[in-house]
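Subject: Sanity check before I submit

Could someone independently write out the structure tokens for this chain? I want to compare against mine line by line before I put it in a report. The sequence has 231 residues.
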Amino acid sequence: MIRLVTFDLDNTLWAVDTVIRRAESALNDWLDQRVPEYNQLPGDSHRVIAKSVVAADPGIVHDISRLRETVLRETFEHCGYQPARAAHLAAGAFAEFMDWRHRVQFFPAAVDVLAELAESYTLAALTNGNANFERLGLDRYFAFGYCAAEVGAKKPDPAMFERAIAHAGVDADEAVHVGDHAVDDVQGAAAVGMATIWVNLFGADDSPPATATVTRLEDVPRAVARLSEQR
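---
Independent answer below. Compare away.
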């Protein structure tokens, strides 16, 4: 019997590429007005600074929010801003990015599916990204959630899946993970013993060994119900 349903967020409940492009554009407009030197730097300078930040703190790659803000701060200092001013500007720039990062357009039926499932199962959000389900108003459906920054590892590492199972107080065979990524979602969840539902909304040619596959989000509740009957 299925008791816990975990969901990936980006590209499972909304298309993330469009969101990030808009957020990056808004960030660049913000920077042009406040830190014009930033966008005048050669592309190589940005890459070198980013690499140096990761080299100094390798674990930061799992926390993309801290990584982005730290790179912004270090770049502002490179542009000649004093550390305190650079930190203040980095916080403002990152806040602008995150405001736009949360202006998502849900896939058709996404919210309705969450609402339906939340009536019968515990739902949780599991993401490698930095979208905050509470900020998106999805805490009406998700009982809890974890991101890579919180567990110190990105999917398909088992840490996030194992944390969710422990949090919900269920066994792995009482849980199913729903996501679009053949490796991060399907292989990662399966490795800890969870059932998996691969969300293939755009006809990808991948053939991951998911427990079930859907091509429409509205089919997820039915797939979960079938899996629950089989366990």
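---
OP: Matches mine. For the report I'm noting this point. Residues 16-34 form the longest helix (19 residues).
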